[in-house]
Amino acid sequence: MARPALVTRARGRILTMFSGDPNGTPDWVTALETGDDAGYFGPGSAVWEVHSGLPTVVAGIRALLMQTLHPGAMAGVHDHSRYREDPLGRLAGTVRWVLTTTFADRAQAEAACAWVSRLHHRVTGDYLGADGTTIAYSASDPDLVAWVHCVFADAFIGSHETWGGDVPGGSDQYVREWAIAGELMGMPAPPRSRAELDAAIAAYLPVLRRDERVDEAVRWLRRPPLGAGVGPAYRVLFAGAVASLPDQYRELLGLKRPRWPAIALTGFALAVMGRLLGSESSSLAYTRRRLERLAAQQPAAPSRDA
């Protein structure tokens, strides 16, 4: 049955926002069908369960909010990011890295991480420390790589805990599996349990701070120029991301928990998005084709009568 035009337009806007393509099938998605192995994770993994769920939409906002609190990460975003001019392009690039690392074969996952690392090598500069001294930064510094990995992992699992279902093996299993992505990005010893992840983030508290750059980024994240078709729904998701943050980090950002039931309304918005997008993403569909092809190539087990 054909979709009503309004539904088709809404679906196209959502898919463009997250993949850069109104059909949800840019080249990097269709490439998931290719490759010679099952990848680093696979069906039944905690990473597949979390990253194939719609709460990752909110996780992206939550992770970006957290990233702004590290002055080195914020300086890199302020000095080098194109988020003001091309917000959807930056978002689509992040989605591409996450889903390729999650679903692609190992060669493509490694290539995606290497591509991001090469971009990070160009992101250098300096910022003023709390005491007024000039501090040099590079996005490829192990300290910043670790910060970004930890806040992404926390956002993914935290959002899934809030709006998703059960995770195979629980949150500890997710953090342990996704540590592979940290290693691929150059983090020497990523956290491997929820408690280790929480402790790793808390260890940054003496460094984290709010300043004018953070306030500017938060104002932009609250109301990015996404247009009338997507903007109102985004603002609900933003409020949900804020409400889901632990109190100490929300207060560091200078944000108040919304007075209205943001968690519940975000859950409703995600459910509507799920109806619009369908039961399975194109990323999963192309990935399953690869797995089915690989399974068909396996030699048949010898007969017991042979």
What secondary-structure arrangement, pairings included, does this model have?
Elements: H1 5-19, H2 27-30, H3 46-51, H4 55-67, H5 71-80, H6 87-103, H7 106-122, E1 124-128, E2 134-138, H8 142-163, H9 170-184, H10 194-202, H11 212-222, H12 231-244, H13 247-252, H14 262-277, H15 282-297
Antiparallel strand pairs: 1-2
Quick summary:
This protein is mainly α and 306 residues long. The protein has 15 helices and 2 strands.
Model description:
With 306 residues, the protein is mostly helical. It has one domain (5-289). The chain contains 15 helices and 2 strands. The protein has helices at 5-19, 27-30, 46-51, 55-67, 71-80, 87-103, 106-122, 142-163, 170-184, 194-202, 212-222, 231-244, 247-252, 262-277, 282-297; strands spanning 124-128, 134-138. It has a two-stranded antiparallel sheet with strand order 1-2. A hairpin with a 5-residue loop joins β1 and β2. α4 (55-67) packs antiparallel against α8 (142-163) and α4 crosses α12 (231-244). It is globular. The chain starts with a helix and ends in a 9-residue tail after the last helix.
Rg, nearest Å? 20 Å
List the strand order in the largest sheet. Answer: 1-2
How many angstroms does the end-to-end distance come to? 50 Å
Overall mean pLDDT score?
A: 88
* Count of domain modules: 1
* Overall 3D form: globular
The portion of residues forming beta strands comes to under 5%
* Biggest β-sheet description: 2 strands, antiparallel
Helix content: 55-70%
Poorly predicted segments: none
Number of helix segments? 15
Oligomer: single chain
Give the helices and strands as they follow along the chain. Answer: HHHHHHHEEHHHHHHHH
Count every beta strand, where a strand is a DSSP E run of 2 or more residues: 2
Helix and strand content put the structural class at mainly alpha
